[in-house]
Design a protein that fits this description.
single chain, alpha/beta, eight-stranded parallel β-barrel, 15% strand, globular, binds glyceraldehyde-3-phosphate, binds zinc ion, Fructose-bisphosphate aldolase, class II, FBA_II
Length: 277
């Protein structure tokens, strides 16, 4: 199964009223786990590499991107490759050479007018190269940006932002928050319905790790399409490594505990996809 453009996966999920799971990849084992989980669920998925993950790899995009693309190319189900939360223009431009089908350009920390102008330019650049572009409307700074629990996207502003920028998908703030390690977020389902009516493009939920399964099901039924999940994989990965090493002080071969971590991440991916699909 070839690597599939994210646009196709999102379009199909949108048309069928399904969610498409987009999972953050940091290491090769993450990519292998996303594909294994998607194959176990028999559902498509997106592997996404964030600007923070690229920073972890010393600023090099190509090694982790091409490795992830190669894993996706050998998958038995359709898998997309997405570059996530890009604030650096130079990184945005490198996406075109590394197999990505889509990018989230994140200028949400900028004042509104500059966010609109920068996002319009990013969308034009992406479309000239056949890339699908996701962006975010935001006014609140800090680590969580608009994905802080109290932040909300205004439907009229969302509609105006989509029209002014020409983006393909909009990340919205509806009650989730990045990097939660408990699944206690409550989403504003009334707002999701209003955003679905106002925005003419598919909606993206960030910080989905903290959202319980029943809330995710309601969110997808209400119109959220691309569901971004990152921390859940790291909870699985780190938990498995911790369990393994706590029970075994002799092993030095990392393949032993990385196998365990990869298997547990794959289960997390499979469960999430079954909820969304
Ligand atoms: O863009 C990536 C996601 O928003 C991941 O959020 O780590 O809280 O699941 P999460
Ligand atoms: Zn995010």
């Amino acid at each position: 199964m070839p690597l599939v453009p994210t646009a196709e996966l999102v379009r199909a999920a949108h048309a069928d009223g399904r969610g498409i799971g987009a999972f953050n990849v940091i290491t090769l084992e993450h990519a292998e786990a996303v594909v294994a989980g998607a194959e176990a669920a028999g559902l498509p998925a997106v592997c996404q590499i964030s600007e923070n993950a690229v920073r972890f790899h010393g600023g090099s995009l190509a090694p982790i991107a091409r490795a992830t693309a190669a894993v996706a190319e050998s998958a038995a189900v359709p898998v997309g490759l997405h570059l996530d939360h890009v604030t650096d223009e130079d990184l945005l431009r490198r996406a075109a050479d590394c197999g990505f089908g889509s990018v989230m350009y994140d200028a949400s920390a900028l004042p509104h007018a500059r966010n609109v102008a920068a996002t319009r330019a990013a969308a034009d650049w992406a479309h000239d190269r056949g890339l699908w572009l996701e962006a975010e409307l935001g006014e609140i700074g800090g680590k969580d940006g608009v994905h802080a629990p109290g932040a909300r996207t205004d439907p009229a502003e969302a509609a105006a932002f989509v029209a002014a920028t020409g983006i393909d998908a909009l990340a919205v703030a509806v009650g989730s928050s990045h990097a939660m390690t408990t699944r206690t977020a409550r989403l504003d389902h009334d707002l999701i319905g209003r955003l679905r009516g106002a925005a003419t493009v598919p909606l993206v939920l960030h910080g989905s790790t903290g959202v319980p399964d029943d809330e995710l099901r309601r969110a997808v039924a209400g119109g959220m399409v691309k569901i971004n999940i990152g921390t859940a994989l790291n909870i699985a990965f780190t938990g498995a490594v911790r369990d393994f090493l706590a029970a075994d002080s002799v092993t030095v071969d990392p393949r032993r505990y990385l196998s365990s971590a990869r298997t547990r991440m794959a289960s997390a991916v499979e469960s999430a996809l079954r909820v969304l699909g």
